[in-house]
Amino acid sequence: MTDLRTALEGHDETLEWRDFTADPPKNRAATDVALTQTRFNLLYDYSYEKAQGTHHGYRVDHVNVQVILDRSKMWAASSGRTPGILRHEQGHFDIVALTARDLYNELTGWDSSDPPRRFRKDTDLKSAVDRLRRQALRFVEFVAPPGGAAGIYDTQTDHGRKTAAQDKWNEALAAARLNKVTLKTALSGLGVGAPP
Questions:
Q1: Distances (CA, A) of 68 to 24, 110, 122, 130, 172
Q2: Residues 143-155: what's their mean pLDDT?
Q3: Which residues touch 122 (CB under 8 Å, ≥6 apart)?
Q4: pLDDT band with cut points at 50, 70 and 90 for residue 149
Q5: Does residue 35 carry a pLDDT above 70?
Q6: 189: left (phi over 0), alpha (psi -120 to 50) or beta
Q7: Secondary structure of residue 97 in the 3-state scheme
Q8: For residues 151, 153, 157 and 163, what is the CA-based torsion angle, rounded to 10 degrees?
Q9: What is the pLDDT of residue 49?
Q10: Which of 80, 94, 100, 169 is the most exposed place for a label (fewest CB within 10 A)?
């Protein structure tokens, strides 16, 4: 028995300017007006199922994904505290949060898939989970890398300054959240494919 509970936590935050508690860096570019820092942690447990037939083997038992907003590293210049920039920064959070949600759904769905996903060795299960985690991190790095580097999201929206492009991203992110489609599916209409 384990103390780990299956849960997806912190993925539905709505940003406010008070979340941006750090001071803007003195050496920032004039066009850099805000920075959102978000990451996710994945914890899981597994067990061996002795079912008859083909449904025996190691299975994911509990999955816990936590989306963490690191407010102590988030900053916004006073000139950038506009509703449009806040929506853009919400997009940075949503990209990480929705990727984490999709990872959670994938892993918790293994048990209910037909047939249920089982592994002959525990090392095979660990490798499969780690591969999915790395793919999720690579996707976030490709779309909206943490730390202020420009990914596809910032490039297409010019850090939120291209309102038409930002509106398309906002719609795609809302579709992923409201329609419960994967983020990759929702972003496919924006020309966002798989990371190189």
A1: 20, 25, 28, 19, 22
A2: 88
A3: 46, 48, 58
A4: confident
A5: yes
A6: alpha
A7: helix
A8: -160
A9: 85
A10: 80
Other beta carbons within 10 Å of 77: 17
Handedness of CA 12, 182, 195, 172 (dihedral sign): negative
Paired tokens of 25:
């860096």
Tell me if residue 9 falls in helix, strand or coil.
Answer: strand
DSSP summary character for residue 91: H
Counting Cβ atoms within 10 Å, is residue 79 exposed (0-12), middle (13-18) or buried (19+)? exposed
CA angle 41, 46, 48 (to 5 degrees): 170
pLDDT in tens, 45-68: 999 988 766 678 999 989 999 999
Query: How are beta strands 7-9 and 57-69 bridged, if at all?
Result: parallel
Query: 142, 128, 133: which is closest to 65 by C-alpha?
Result: 133
Which residues touch 152 (CB under 8 Å, ≥6 apart)? 142, 143, 144, 190, 192
Average pLDDT, the chain: 92
* Residue whose entry in the numeric block shows the structure tokens 């990371």: 195
